[in-house]
Every structure is written in C-alpha cells, then in structure tokens.
Amino acid sequence: MRRSASVLILMWLGVHVVLGQTSPVLADSDRQAERQALVQSLSGVAPDLMIDDPDVRAAMLHVPRHRFVPDGLQDQAYLDKPVPIGHGQTISQPTVVALMTQLADVDSTQKVLEVGTGSGYQAAILAQLTDQVYTIEIIEPLAKDAVERLANLGYDRIRTREGDGYYGWPEQAPFDRILVTAAAAHIPPPLLEQLKPGGRMIIPVGPRWGAQTLMLVTKDQAGETTTESLLPVRFVPLTSKSLR
Amino acid sequence: MHPADAPPRRTLLLALGLVAAGIVGFEVALTRIIAIQHLHHLASVIIALGLLGFAAAGAFASLFADTIRRHGAVWLTVSAASFALTLPLSVILSGHIDMTLPALAWRPEELLGFGLYVACFLVPFFLGALFVTTCFICWSGHIGQLYAADLTGSAAGALSVPLALQIMALENLLIFFSLAAAMAVVLTRAGVRNSAIGAGLAGIVIAIHNIDGLPIQPAEYKELSIQLNTRDARILWERDTPDTRLTVLDAPGLHSAPGMSIASTAEAPPQVQLFFDGDLGAPLLDVSAPPPLMQSVISSAAFHLAPPQPTVLLHSLGGSWQAWVAAFHDPERIQASEENANLRRLLTGDAGPARPYLPAGVELEPMTARRFHAAHPGPFDVVMLTISAPEAGLAAGTVRYDTTVEAFRDVLADVSQGGVYAVVTDIKAMPQHSLRLVATAARALRQMGKSPSTHIAAIRDWRNLVLLVTQTSIDDDRQQALRAFAERWRFDLVALPGLQEADTNRFHHRRNGGLYGPFKAFIEDEATTFQENYAFDVQPTTDDSPFFDKFFRRQGLGTLRDTFGPTWRAHLSWGYLLHWAALLIGAVLALVAIAAPLAFIRRDRAPARENRVRQFPTGLYFSALGLGFMFVEIGLLQKSTLLLDATSSAFSTVVAAMLVGAGAGSYWLGRRRLTDRALVGWLLLPAGLAPLFMVLFAHGFEFAADWSFAARASFISAAVFAIAFPMGCALPQGMLRVRAAGASTIAWAWGINGFTSVIGSLAAVLIAMHWGFTVLMAAASLCYLAAALLGSQLIGGQAAFPGPQPLPRTPHPDPVRHRKQ
Questions:
Q1: Domain check: are B157 and B287 in the same one?
Q2: Which of B179, B217, B221 is nearest to B200 (CA)?
C-alpha cells in the first residue's frame, strides 16, 4: 500500500516536471512573447488619446514588467490591469503607465521626477527615455524593495529617495517633467515650483479603486499654470485579500 | 420536554430576553460594522438579513417541530451557544472575505463576494432566531410571557446600540452581546453542563477580546487603510459614535488643502486628518491663526459676494477647514451646526488629542442643518454647506435632507439681504452632484419667485465647485468682485449674470466646454432637453425622495458608453445597482432558506375544493402583509432620519418602536380570532394611517426640530407605535384562520410571509428612490387594504365562526414571531 502510494507520488512528480519543462511560459523566462502581445494590445482610451508613441511602446516592450510584480502574481503581469504590490498599493495597469509616459512627452535631455515609486516599474519605463530619472516613495518597505529591484535589474541611473513626495526633490529641481502616481486633493505647490517653465506634470485624479482621470498640468514660459482634465483612463479593482 | 402549558421559568424568560437583545442589537450594530468595513451602512439589506434569519429558522423548525418539543433543552442550549459563538465569528469571517464592493459595477465576480459577505451574517441571525422559535414551540401555552420577554429584550437591544456607542467601542459592544448569549446558555437550564458550556463560551469570547481578535477595520481600499501604510502613520484618537467611527490620524504625508488655488505658493498647513468610517480624510489644522493661504481657497468666493465682517453659519463641518477659511475673512460671528457630540468635543479640544482644531469663538450648535434652520431663524451673511461627493453613486440609497428643494428654501429664508448660500462639492469626470445642486437651487428660487439667472453664480477649479446662491440679485459690484477673485487665483467661472462662454473654461480646461452649458440650461429653465440626453439623473431631490446620490438613469447607459468607451462601467451609479443586487441575492437566499425547507413538509390531506379556490387569496393575503409591513417600516425609518439626524439613530428608534407596537398589537389582538368585520377594521387603520404619516412627519418636523433627542425619539416612537399596533394583528389573525387547513398550510403561509418580507424590505428603498415616500406609503396602504379585503377569504377561514378562540396550543413556530407582520 505504502509502496503504491510512493509510486503514484513519483509518477505525479514526473508528469509535473515533464509538463513544466515543455511549458512555453517557462521556456521564455523573460516573457518576451507575453510582453509583445501586451504592447500590441495597448491602444488607448479615445481617438485623441491613443498609445502611438513608438518610443513609449519600445520602452514598454523592453522592461520586464513581471519582475516588478510580487512572486505569486506574476501571471497577471502582462494583463492590462493593475496588480497589488502590498501596502494597499498597485502597480498601475499598462495602459495607464503608457498613457502617462506618452503625455509626459519625455526626451533624452529631460530631467524627470516621479512621485510614488511603488514597484519601480514606471521609473524603469522612464529610464528607457532619459537618463535623468528621480523617484520618491513615502512607504518605507516599498521604497526599499524598489531600490533593490531596480539595482538588480541594472537600472543604476535611476535616483531613488524614501520620503514625502509632496515636497518634491528640491536639491535636484527644476524638472522638465513630473509624474505623480497618487491623486492629491490639490496640486502640491512645491511640485509646481519645481516644474520648469514649459514643463508638464501628469496626475491621475480620482479614487484608487475606481474611475481615474488623467490630468495634465502645464506651466507656461511666464510661470503661469493651467490644468487640463483628460478622459478617464481606467477602473481599478483593488483585489484586497482581506481587511487589515 | 415540557408540557406546553407548563409555565416557563423566569430564568428562561431572562435567557430569551438576552438572546433577543443580542439578535436585534447585532442587527443595529451591523449597520455600523458594514459602514466601517466598506462604504455604506446597507440598512435595508441588514433588515432583510434579520428577517431572512427568522424566516429560515421558522421554516427549519417546522421540519423538526416534534423533535424540538421532545428535546427542547438541547435545542435551546445548542442554538444559544452557537449564537454566542457565531456572532463574533461572523464578524471576523466577514473581514476576510475578498471583496471590493466599489468594483461591483464592472466585476460581476464581486457579486459572489458580496453574497458570501452578506451570508456570513445570516448564520447568527438564524441561530438566535432558532432559540426564540424553540421557546415558542416548547411553551406554546404561555405565548404572552414569552412574547413580553422577547419584545422587551429586542427593544432593549435596538436601543442599547446608540446608547452604548456613546461610551464604548463597537467591538466591545459585540462582545457584550456575545456574553449575553453565553449567559442565556447558563440560564436556559439549571445544571453543571450548561454552566460549564456558558463559562467556556464566556472564556472564548473574552479571549477573542483580549487577543484583539475582533477587529472591525476598514477594507484595504479605504483611504484610512491606505494612509496607515505610510511611514510613521499612527492613529491619535478613535471613537465609535452612533453615527460614525471617528479616527484622527497623524502621518507625515498628510497635506490636504481642499480647493487651494494653483496660483498659491503656500504649502498645505500642518495638520492631522479626521476620518469618518475610515474615509473622507478631512484636515484638522494645527494652527493658531488663519493661514494666509485661505484667501486662495475656492470657498473664499462666498465672502466676495457677502458684506464685510459677515455673520457665518457652517454646515457639515467635517474637519476644521471651512471654519479656518471663514475665520480668515474677519467674520463678526461664526456658528456651525454639528449633531455629533463626540465630534464637537474633538473639535473644541475636549476630547482626543486635547487641542482645539477650530478657530477661537466658533459656536457649535448640536443639530443638523435642517433642524438648525427650522429652530433658529437667521439672518446670516454667509451660509456654507460642504458636501462630499462619493464616487459612482456610492450612497445612492442614503437619504440626504440638506440638499433637497425644501432645504434650499429653508436656508435661503435665513440668508441676509446681502448674503449668500454657498455649497461646496467635488466635480466628477461627468458631473453629477454639481448639476443636481444647481437644478435644485434653481427650482427652489423659482418656487420663491426669484430668477435663478440673477441669483446664482458658480466657480470651479479642476476638482472643486462652489455654487453660490444669493438672497438678492447679484449686482455689478458683486459680479466684479467675484470676477476679480477668479482671475487672481485662476479659478474658472461657471455661472454669473452676464457671463459669456468665452470667459469660462480658461484655467482648468475640461472637454466639451466645461460646465457652462449645463449650468446655463438649468438656470434658464428646467433643462428638460438636457436631462433627457444626459447620462445621469440630475433632477432636483425633494424631502419626499431625498436620494441625492442616486444618479442612475437607464436611458443614459448609451451616453456613458459613447463617452467613456471601455471604462464606461466604472461610471455607473453602482450604489443604485447594489440595491438591485441585494434584491436579487435576497430573493435567492429567501427561496433557498425559507421556501426550500417547506417543500419537504408532508402535505396536508388533499384540500377540499373550496380550500383550493382559496389558495390564491391566502397567498395574496400573507404576501400583502409581508410587503406592507416592510414598506411601512423602511418608509418610516428613512423619513424619521430627518428628525433623528442619522440613519443609525432612526434605525434603533423605529425598529424598537415597530417591535413593541407590532408585538403588542399581535399579543392583544391576536390572542383570539376576531370577527371578519373587526379584522377589516383593524387592517384599515394602517391602510389609512400610512399616507397620513407623511403629512404628520412633515409638520411634526417643524415644531419638534429643536426638541432634545429623547423628546424627538419619543415623538417618533409614539407615532410608529400607533401604526404598528394594528399592523401586529394581521399575521396571527391570518394564522388563526388558516390553521384549520393543517400544519403545512400554516408553514406555507409563514414561508410566503417571510419571503415577501425579505423582498419588501429590499424593494422599499428602490420604490422610494424612484417614486418617493408618498408612493411607498401608498403602496403599503394598498397592501393593507388588500389584506382587509382578503382576510375573510382565507383557506380555513370559511369554517363557522365559533366565537372567540385561543391561539393554537402547539402552533407552528409562527404567530408569535419576533417581528410581526
């Protein structure tokens, strides 16, 4: 009886190993094919908000999103949806990341500040477009994880800081572009101050779990600021595992 | 176990009272639990749950009535012990159900989570109700005593929640209910075994308490949970109140400055934040003088339309933000209405971190905005109301009496000649609250004989809008003052006499021209054409249907799809859909828990032809009672909120009064069979009283507005008792008539009544949302009218009336149920 059970277990393990070895997912450990499929599927949210910047699409194709997602959720990395990364935060859905990056209109000479590092994925995308990426995270464990993750993936030029993004990064100001990944009740004046004349700031507005609208803040050469509410870009089901 | 005519021991009566208190107390406490964990109190769902628990217990007991009679002590012990345990366990379990309630509109799988969440609260209701039912089966000859104990306990449980929450945390209150049930185990039967079980249960419950194993905390998606994830975040003070849980949070990342201009260079002032049920973080400023940045806050616009040194009245104070805005403008006097005593103490420094968060001299009035204006005539130069605008119609089923047409009229009557009424709200991607506000203000002005186009202004930024309604026409000087303010701080004007479209949508660009067009449509006329083509229902609300957050409009779905493309579902007024989801789930659960067990009951012998003919009117009779009772209860509950300030207070008061009233009516009028004529007379009373109550409540509000809470609650209780008393006789009289047809007929009558009660409690809110309380009460009236007509045509009712009859000695667990219909 005991021997039969052992044989069954061994058979099961054998089948599992064989199937696992032939799995196309494991065969492509970098998940290039999944990433390509995702990027191809990204379109936009409206005729005038299409994801059509080739540089942005190339950046999305290059950054291994699954490496920014917690271990148990990597299968969700290449779905167009946000994924929980702990501490009530999510890695934004690819459409939002792509749109924010495209709206920021970053070129290689520009200095970019990201407020809300999260997993570090958005910063990694930005780092494909410019060498001057600065990112701040207020949630201590997320900040530490992001530093380690970015270093492991070779994003050495991204400057990270653990701190309150409301105050920006005055030592490195001004910035050509600022991306804020968490909505605020008002636009932080320190960030406006650290935005260069002619600069652009992108902020998602709305609840984290619901419809969010991207807002574009521009500062003209005279230093006057205006905002533009763009179309809603997403609806986010925060898949909380439990109440705290 | 006992002969039915053996009197129950006093200790058993006490046990029954304790369990009944635990059941109803838990029912009321659930409104708080759900509001804290998720986003709404779901009062009607909870009522349906309680009913479902009782009806399911009745149906279940009907299958085992003989066993229960033989082994009553065991059934009592097991049901009470299980109730004591499952009460806290259901709350613990509910906190582990993976559910994102706000995503219900676009993730159908959330419906499963919602169903599981609701179902886990059903278990304690079922077990508690099984205890009550068992008592009635085993001592059916002493219904009166049992009923008295049941009702006394139930009413005490209902009233205990708002009283207890003044002095203890919600978690502790649940522990008390659980301990009460453990005590009931001991009292149920004298002996070592029950004492040991009771002591063991008490030990477990106390252990749960001591290891902090019963945390009632906000879901991960709520704002407080998110803020608590930041470094060094800590809760400075937390207090449960009957209406809300107040939490003061300190964290380094708190920088709220609602409505601050993008042209302002000042940083948000130092602050902690105040959360209401884990949401709506409102700033509590740590300052000693009004910060200069207040001049750049959008709500300052109100002071540019008011005379210098204005008298100010603030409503829905929330945190202290608007009080500091007002203080900046050198007011002669600031008053604020705030009905929550704990919040008043917090804001004045008498509780919590022990520092005043309000500017010196702010006078707090302990009442709601509506009651304040009914009790204290103005005039005030600036009246300001800040309303939160929950996402996606979150609070669709919540009554809101401070934004109705009547409320606007009341406030405007108290605004001085040069004064202004300002309402501050948020703007959504597709505006809802702001449009309903201007529609309501315009209608109120028209009813007062004033032209909206000369009395309404509005100003906005990218997120906030301030609607400004003046007592007199906005003259050139005031127009210029407002224009200058908007220009200086880069705000966009939305409405102002003489405003052209080119002057709008300049600093905060919105697509489709911003809000100028829709506002113009509502100000110039009732905007019928606009409304017909708009995605949301933004028509004014009235006291008869004060569902300010109900924006859903079926005809608008196409517009939503066209506007938002693939994300259109996220913009649905899902709070409204939640009520439909609850109705669907409730119907399924009621079928499973009530009707399915009855299918296993052995059918009575083949009914006589005459009885077969009477099956339909019998079914209708018990359906009408189930629907009618719940229409009245929900209608009175929602309407009483106007006078009792909050849903939770109204819930406790109305439920307690309904229990006592219907119970007393059931006891006094249900003991013996009434003549058909007498039954018709008693049933016509609620049929006539239900519509009259709407008139009574409207006029009662005017003269009772400044009464103490006890006096107002007594007034409501007396009114509810008056209508509930005759309603209470309907079910037992029906049961007395159908009992001749056999046990299964009684069981089916019971099941039909239970099923329609569940449906009625959930449908009542939908009816009130769509057609108003007048229609809801008219429907209730029709139900009782139908019952009056059908009462003489029930199965078994044709038997020659032999004169007064006692209640059946060994009834189905029916006629004396906890809440009578």
A1: no
A2: B179
